[in-house]
Design brief:
The protein is of the alpha+beta class. The chain is built from 16 helices and seven strands. A four-stranded mixed sheet has the order 4-1-6-5, sandwiched between helices.
Amino acid sequence: MNIEAFRNDLISWFEKEQRDLPWRKDQDPYKVWVSEIMLQQTRVETVIPYFNRFIEWFPSLEEFAKADQEKILKAWEGLGYYSRVRNLHSAVKEVQESYGGTVPDTAEEISKLKGVGPYTAGAILSIAYGKPEPAVDGNVMRVLSRILLISEDIAKPKTRKIFEAAVRELIDFDNPSFFNQALMELGALICTPGVPACLLCPVREHCAAFEKGKQTELPVKHLKKKSRDVFLSAAIIRDEAGRYLIHKRAATGLLANLWEFPSFEILNHLMNKRELFKTKFYEAYGVKVELGEQITRIQHVFSHLVWEIDAFSGGVLEEIDPVTLHDNQLRWVDQHELESYAFPVPYQKLYDAYHNK
């Protein structure tokens, strides 16, 4: 391969065809960092409004560092993978406290920050600071597996090292920011999964897979293990004043510290979910509830499991005492207050279904 010609063709294409994205307006390391964390396992189109709102709420690293967790989770509500924003917040606070609010510009220092893996470190260092560091994500591995005819399984963590070494060989030392972004952009727009748009590719003449007709066979990626099904019974419970009963999830584990409508896991999905909810609610809080009609059934897919939620409407038959509310992370809120709490997507869907019936 003529590496210099490859660089020129790739970067020239990017300069003309790059998408107008809000995090490309400047090279602020904080904004680059936020965008890269948001873009992990999330489509660009989905991220754009979240990024804009996030920067509106937390316009600087300092503002984000001092923000409270409830507002942070609300800003992230609906993006999923909430550990990303928790780690980001911890790391930003460390930058504020240990680095005077300046994002580190060396691989050694930036890689020590919580949630900053090799890809994120490389993206920040190359895009914001112009350092010739590899930023290898799924798009980059797909592009380079075809261009260089690399057939190692990209699902294996050790394979990333092969692609990082390849980027170090190919990267444009004069413009590492555009080089890395161009590889990502090419993977997003042209060198897509399945059947790539080779006839539109600016680096087609450099591509070994295209030359050999193997572009649809790469990258090699073995299928993940089958996800696990989890069955839940949930209810929107309101009191005589019209307030909603909400519950804060545990501080660790899946969807930590987010809010939900009361829910219980059902081990046998063939059992009566309405009656099981009433029984479990009484066992947990010592209060009887009456459930009405079923609101909806929601399926929500996580990376490792699938939630099947049967949801009902209902009300309490007796008052829940303040100690029980406090000890069990329960809270009564009116409709206006409800809007300030961060809920996972399946519970947002449940709430929408309740109000659209």
